[in-house]
Hints:
Strand 10 and strand 11 form a beta hairpin. By secondary structure, the chain is of the alpha/beta class. The protein has one domain (4-257): Class I glutamine amidotransferase (GATase) domain (Rossmann fold), CATH 3.40.50.880. The protein has helices spanning 16-25, 35-41, 66-75, 77-85, 95-103, 170-178, 244-257, and strands at 4-9, 29-34, 49-52, 89-93, 115-118, 126-133, 154-161, 165-168, 182-187, 207-211, 217-220. A nine-stranded mixed β-sheet has the order 2-1-3-4-11-10-9-6-7. Strands 5-8 form a two-stranded antiparallel ribbon. It has seven helices and eleven strands. The longest helix has 14 residues, at 244-257.
Amino acid sequence: MKPKVLILRTAGTNCDKETAHAFELAGADVSVEHIHHLKKHKQLSKFNILCLPGGFSYGDDLGAGKIFSLEFLLWLKSELENFIDNGGLILGICNGFQVLVKTGILPDLNFSQTVTLTDNDSHRFEDRWVYLKTPGPDPTIPANKIWLKDLDSVITLPIAHAEGKFFADDSIVKIIEKNKQVALRYVNGQGVRGGYPFNPNGSINDIAGITDISGRVFGLMPHPERFIDRHHFPFWQNQTVTAWGFIIIENSVKFFEKGG
């Protein structure tokens, strides 16, 4: 059977159709629903993968993803707990990542916020392609169990955000690093970490994406759904390129096709 994917949207979400298309190309059975529908029908348990796509939920009032995260905690906390306990996967892209950290689903599934994604150091909206360092083939890294299989050590994806700076107290960052929860870091084209513009927002430790300790929940600021075909890359005529975004999404579908 095809894995069932729920793309959850609300007012201001604007990447739901592209994300649904990417999962469909990867072989999933995809539904796109408004959070109010899920609140009413409580059907999260029938899905294998929950994806929170990019956009500007509720106009980023009170901060990016904040209102959406409050709705989750108020209406769907028990549904989410059951979904996670039953082995579901969660992917949060850009605004979806912001929602996951503000609900406390990331980094540690305790529904209490310990990290945030805040205003870019540049004080402007950053919209460009970035290079990202993956953790390498280490099987003990949570992200490698599902999302990052078959990726090169350096990949490229597009970003588009104003509040993408990953920030937390030093004690929390040390725990995330110790648990190998960092999935992606901003680097230059040679895979070397540096400052702006390679790190487009000033994220601590150049963090672009993290997982929970199990690797089942993944949040990232770059947009994999915007790189599902080599022709999406602006220099595809001059370079040999791989659609890394499609591989990330396809990995989650393959995970359930192989038995989860």
